[in-house]
TrEMBL record:
Subcellular location: Membrane
Protein name, UniProt field: Uncharacterized protein
A single cellular component GO annotation: membrane
UniProt cross-references to Gene3D superfamilies, sorted A to Z: 1.20.140.150
Keyword Membrane: yes
Source organism of this protein record: Batillaria attramentaria
Length: 172
């Protein structure tokens, strides 16, 4: 029997994954003048270029360790969140009497919260120091994808709390 708490947790988990995927793929982490930059693409007024198409030599910070660390951490965070979604949906269909899938999902989501949260913090601090990205400067600022990644981290924490509560209520 699926509980209301499991359904609420699954809704938060789907929202977490949507936010992670959108933040991961869009080129709007920072705005520097007429250039929008994301983890995997950068766009000017007329075109977008993916980092896999060519090596961006004229864009500062693109090959720095903190940028690559953010890309790697976001990959791991997205993978963990997608795996948590897989486990949660399988747990809806197949109930195991001796195992607590809710606690496993909560653990995965907690790990996703930490990994994506660290990625956002590393990116924010490093972009501020090296690229002079500020919160209050419209020409050099963090854009909506950055904030969506921060929100995805928070949603992952909320989802983890809901699943931990559901697992505790069901198996205590």
């Amino acid at each position: 029997m699926t509980t209301c708490c499991a359904i609420v947790g699954l809704i938060f988990l789907v929202l977490t994954n949507l936010a992670n995927i959108i933040a991961f793929a869009t080129p709007y982490w920072i705005i520097t003048g007429r250039l929008n930059r994301g983890l995997w693409a950068y766009c000017d007024d007329s075109t977008c270029t993916w980092v896999f198409q060519e090596v961006p030599t004229s864009i500062p910070g693109q090959d720095s360790a903190w940028w690559l660390a953010t890309q790697g951490l976001m990959c791991c965070g997205l993978g963990v969140s997608l795996f948590a979604l897989l486990v949660a949906t399988v747990a809806l269909c197949c109930e195991c009497k001796r195992c607590n899938s809710s606690h496993a999902v909560a653990g995965l989501l907690l790990m996703g919260f930490l990994v994506v949260g660290v990625a956002v913090v590393v990116f924010g601090i490093s972009a501020n120091k090296e690229l002079l990205i500020e919160l209050d400067t419209p020409q050099r600022t963090f854009s909506w994808s950055f904030w969506l990644a921060a929100a995805a981290s928070g949603l992952s924490l909320v989802s983890a709390i809901v699943y931990a509560g559901e697992g505790r209520a069901r198996y205590s």
